[in-house]
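In these records, each integer encodes one residue's backbone shape. Here is one protein:

___
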Amino acid sequence: MSTTPQNKIKRPLSPHLQIYKPMLTMTMSIVHRITGVILFLATLLLAWWLIAAAAGPAYFDFVEGILTSLLGRFVLFGATWALIHHTLGGLKHFLWDTGRGFDLKTVELMAKGSIIASIALTFLVWAIAYGVR
């Protein structure tokens, strides 16, 4: 059989997002990667804060003012959530490394639990940090 343009074999395209229906587990995988990037950026903020502390009170007050502003707190709140969510995802992967938790029901339960737990723990951390009891 020749493969001239008239009788060219039609091969399937590689699967991509237009073919796959978004699933919770796929979304969680993408979010895990995004939280890794957020944590990298948050580490830069932490380094900036530490450098400001070493630079002296005037510069530290400047940086502290930025980080405690409404926008700064929003960024720090998001970084807190990213840290907790990424950690829970890492614990899930650690469980998978032991060969457990691969059945679909458990995978879905862990994905939903990770979302709920990361949000709840983030609010708990911030409530404790600000003395809300």
